[in-house]
Structures are given as structure tokens and as C-alpha cells.
């Protein structure tokens, strides 16, 4: 057992100091007692001797109980902690941030998932959840970016929380444009706090940098200086048939995707770039990240702590009722005239 706040023990002598240094309160000439039975003197002991040696009344029992109550209260305030059996937790030492584009173009329905056309964002979220299930032991966070970049979920070992955060994202959540450089800079700044670990950024986007303060080149230089690897994927089909009055023609829904910038960022930081023109290619990108950044399954031994303060607190509460119960008992036992 250990104490979380051992400095609370300095309050133990406080009642003694109060009694020692504060002047006594004026009570006048009145003596209040719970019962006259304590003052009864039998006829066998009555006489001059008893008058010369009057009985000294001091509630020592109540003082001892009050001291015990104070001791237990201070012990509870110091927060005693008990430790359970050692447990092993899987730890890989890898910190991985996902930066997900939620700009307006991510609403394009040019990808298919399970044979059904879906929005780019829906495909990225669904396949990201499958990816998270394979990263047990990693610390993962989520950044969403549009016109601005926001930290949606800080780095955590709770992968269920990250999956729930992914489900809460939506197109336009952070604006309709694409602040690609700011998203990289935000991930770099958040991962900088964990300099001793392997730091990785997964960048998922379907556009070019159209908003924000930093350009992708500037943000990539900062990421390289901080030792952050960036694996980027460009999302979106290359050609989509469109039926018009003049006949069928093809359009390129990913014309705004700046693949050159993404390739340079990935190469600059020691990462990789892939193009995902369909959901299969996007799933292949996640598998590639699993190969390049394996979740090295180590283990850390921890002993879970549990709070023990309710026990001394409950005992103090029980002891504090003893003087009151004794007075009630004496009052009930007092003889009536």
C-alpha cells in the first residue's frame, strides 16, 4: 500500500495545536452533564474523605474516539492506494496519427464498397476501422481537415474511441476547402511530444492544398526535421463515364488531386505514396502500412491501483456515532422520580 498524497499527514497534529495555542472558550459558571448518575455518591463512601477528594470528570473515552476519527480522516485524505496483481499490456511503442480529409470533394460517390457506390469519405472511414483492428498496442490519434485542421482525437491506446471518432466525422465538418499543409503541421506538433517513439502519419486526401497557412512543401520540411514519416494516399477514381446528349464521354473526378505534392512529401519524410482509385486499392494501402509499420508486439507489466480511502472514511463515520449513542443510552437509563 502507498499514499497518493502523503503530505496530508502534516495535518495530524492540528487539533493539538488548536487546543494548545487557542484560548479556551468562556462557558460561565454552568456545568452541563448528560446525567446525574455520574455524580451519585454511595452512603458507604460519603464523608469527609470523599469531600476532600472530589471525583474528577473528564470524557477521556470521547477524546480518544475523536482522536481516532481525526486519524482516520487524515488517512483517507492522504488517498491510500492498493495494488492488484501484475498484468501485461501489449505495447509497440509506435505513435500513429491519421489525418483525414473531410472537404466537400470527399462527398463524391466514385468509389465502390461491397459492390455499392459510396462516398470517398465513407470508404476511407470503413477501411480505416478495419485497419485499426490490426493495430492493437499502438497509440493512435485522429486529425480531420478541410478549410482548417482540427485534432479530433488525441493519441490514445483506446482504439474503440478512435473508431467511434471516425464514425462521427462528416463531409464539411472542418470546412469545404483543403488545408493540407496545416494538417501535416498539426500532426507534427502533436507527435513532437513523443520524441522517443516511432512516429507515423497516415495522410488521406483527394485534393490539393487550397487553404491554410503552410504549403505542403513547408509542412513536409518541418515533418522531416522532426523525424515524422508520412504515408500518403490520393483517393478518387481516375475516369467516370458521363452520359450527355451528344453521347458518352469521360471525366476525371480527381483532376484536383495534387499527386506530385503528395509524392514529394512522402519521399521527403521517408514514407510512401499510393493512389487509391477504388476501395480495393485503398485497402491495399492500409495493408502496405501494416507491412511498413508493423505493430511490434512488446509488453509492459503494470499493477493496477485501486483507491482504499473509503475504508478509513467509513470507519471514521462509524466511530463518530459512538459518543452520540452512548449519550442516548445514558439518557434512556436515567432513573425517573
From TrEMBL:
Enumerate the Pfam families for this protein. VWA_2
- Mind telling me which PANTHER family this protein's record contains? SPORE GERMINATION PROTEIN, VWFA DOMAIN-CONTAINING PROTEIN
Q: Which domain of life is it from?
A: Bacteria
Spell out the coiled coil positions from the record.
Answer: none
Show the PROSITE patterns listed in the entry: VWFA
Q: Which residues form the VWFA domain?
A: 95-292
- Identify the taxonomic lineage of the organism of origin: Bacteria, Pseudomonadati, Pseudomonadota, Betaproteobacteria, Rhodocyclales
- Protein name (database record): VWA domain-containing protein
SUPFAM superfamilies referenced in this protein's UniProt entry, alphabetically: vWA-like
